[in-house]
Amino acid sequence: MADITTDVLIIGTGPAGTATAALLSSYGVDNLIVNRYRWLANTPRAHITNQRCMEVLRDLGRDVEDEAYMFATGQDLMGENVFCVSLAGEELGRMKSWGTHPMSRAEHQLSSPCHMNDLPQTFMEPLLFKTACTRGTQARMSTEFLSFAQDDDGVTATCRDRLTGKDFTIRARYLVGADGANSLVAQQAGLPFEGRMGVGGSMNILFRADLSRHVAHRPSVLYWVMQPGADVGGIGMGLVRMVRPWNEWLIVWGYDIGQPAPVVDAAMATNVARQLVGDPELEIELLSANTWTVNNMFATNMQEGRVFIMGDAAHRHPPSNGLGSNTSIQDAFNLAWKLAMVVKGEASPTLLDSYSEERVPVARQIVTRANKSIGEFGPIFEALGMDGGVDHDKIQRNMDQRCDATPAAERQREALRKAIAFKKYEFDCHGVEMNQRYASGAAVTVGEPEPAYPQDAELHYAPTTWPGARLPHAWVYDRAGARHSTLDLTGRGRFTLLTGIGGEAWVAAAEAVGDALGINVRTHVIGPRRDYEDHGGEWAELREVTDAGCVLVRPDHHVAWRSAGLGADPAAELTRVLRAVLGR
Ligand code: FDA
Q: Signal sequence span per UniProt (predicted)?
């Protein structure tokens, strides 16, 4: 007999675990979360928060979304991605990033009701944790997960109370390993991985210092410092990252992974900060320093029976593109509604198979992209003449030569401009953030092939209602004239059917089928004098079905199925589709 019982046990209070807990509690599912430490993230690792991640927070409630914006640095202060020899020294170039280029900004605004922002992990985790606990999650801190055993009916986990040193057991129907890059859950579940850990070494130096005079005129999250000797390993050069404008900073500095990790003491941290800022007199208030490794690894299966892994437990990669926490929270959005419907008896456990089917391709994509982005600094080094060799004088001469009035220098300047512009694949990579399309039994197509991407799929989001894709965002208006995103009409733990004038039979069918299956399918008719009006014609432009057709949307905003027109027997069609998705 276990000491404690719950429906879902979550290991880890990082972005993945707290998001899962917040979503499960919002869906009314009993859950317990444990963390071996007494509190949440103590350093602001993740920070770039993308639109898709914000859509998950918005789904948790406008209060949650608004609180995130309240603590975040706004998009307008994120965008001048600077390359320089030091903050006080010469600027080598810059590019508009994170959706701040006017063309990119338009794409962002058209794609989502939410906007990108910079929310350090030290704010994101407490927000999600608070949301979870106030909605019902039981949290046990200073509690270390040790092992699990699973059987046909559930999972028994052994944990240690680190305050008393006593071990105890928790019995759960499902176990979620959101326990980070050294996941014990993944290891004990024997889940398979592709790739390698420890492909580079980096150190974080967190400090306070007012650097306004160097940065306020070119507001950015990231200042890349390229100077002879900075290319040690890890992410390849010095990075000065804004944590709070403009007096709290995180320096990321590489070390040679072939050597033991350095001990970063106050003297070393101050030296590194002085070198990268370019001010030999700079005084810093050192908050913390630690080392970490660059990884290139992902799970090719994220489920073993009743045990799931998510977040860094499943995909381990460098911070490039800012995808880690964002993807972790989206893993949670994918799994939580499925667990909820299975726990409540609304879906068969086979629905849970779609989690790994849908998220492994995302894990592969983001790990590959993040590691590729590191390599794409190469052309910048090359253009500056910083590639190869440790002859610092020679590197300095190469860098100086780009200022000459010679054809070679002109070519060098062009190469540098192009190399910096190419970094949009890291710093303005909207497609990777927004184009996640799923292929599994939980997205039912009627033989329609996946639509091609009209532009580069990594850089540009392509809206579609093709089953498996995220529902496109369009503004529609209620009868009082207030605007709502199509995403606001859906989600919050329920399936939603969207139709138009002439599609009322779908509404009746959804109610009847929902009653028969014991699930609540929300319905909305969009059209003149209906629940919502499409005054701008945005929805009509994007929906890819006729007025009398329908789009059935899953609780995680992804399209489950669509019908171009009314069809002969809407109730039979919806029954077939929902049974297929729910495995019933
Ligand atoms: P995470 O590692 O955050 O949490 C794991 C949890 O499990 C912790 O609570 C831990 O204590 C707990 N745990 C582990 N083992 C346990 C055990 N045995 N028992 C109990 N508890 C246990 N991402 C992003 O989206 N945007 C960004 O801009 C950046 N930037 C960035 C910069 C830097 C310098 C780094 C190092 C990383 C980033 N990231 C990022 C990545 C991001 O920090 C990372 O992907 C997420 O923290 C992963 O969240 P998880 O919840 O999966 O794991």
A: none
